[in-house]
Amino acid sequence: MSFKEVLHAQHPAAERAAQLDLYAFLIGSWATRVVTHDDGRTHEGAGEIHAGWVLEGRAIQDVWMIPRREQRAATRRPLPVAGNWYGTTLRVFDPLLGAWRILWTDPATNNFVRQIGRADGNDIVQDGEHVNGTAMRWRFTEITPASFHWIGEFMRDGSARWERQVEVFAERA
Prior knowledge:
Blueprint: H1 3-7, E1 8-9, H2 17-20, E2 28-38, E3 41-54, E4 59-65, H3 69-72, E5 86-94, E6 99-106, E7 111-120, E8 123-129, E9 135-141, E10 147-155, E11 163-172
Antiparallel strand pairs: 1-3, 2-3, 2-11, 3-4, 4-5, 5-6, 6-7, 7-8, 8-9, 9-10, 10-11
């Protein structure tokens, strides 16, 4: 049996299907336009996302990358603010917490984040802290079967307002 066979699942675990539905829209492949914000300047790049059920359908794992795979060898200059992502998220619903535990790991940018994700109306909000202690929030908005808008924000020390850092505009591939 291969690693892929023991990791991937065809569908969500039946006993948790209702709770797992929150992130089910992510399953599949996405083409992305990435916009970074840097002191009033914006920068754009292209990327991709791939997501699937894992661990007997009890979790969702995805891979986010900037730039796209076919552009990675030719693109040596990282996207300002974001860098060149090649990371993975493991999203696991915790029934005792009534929310999702989210682990983002990106060895390409040395970025490791833990968050808690919950529905917020039609959106999904993930709150956590950067490894340096900065409060961060990632949001999925405008979710449809064919597209979504992801917003990465942080709060500077002493500030009471969120600052937009990265946006991802995704369309089903």
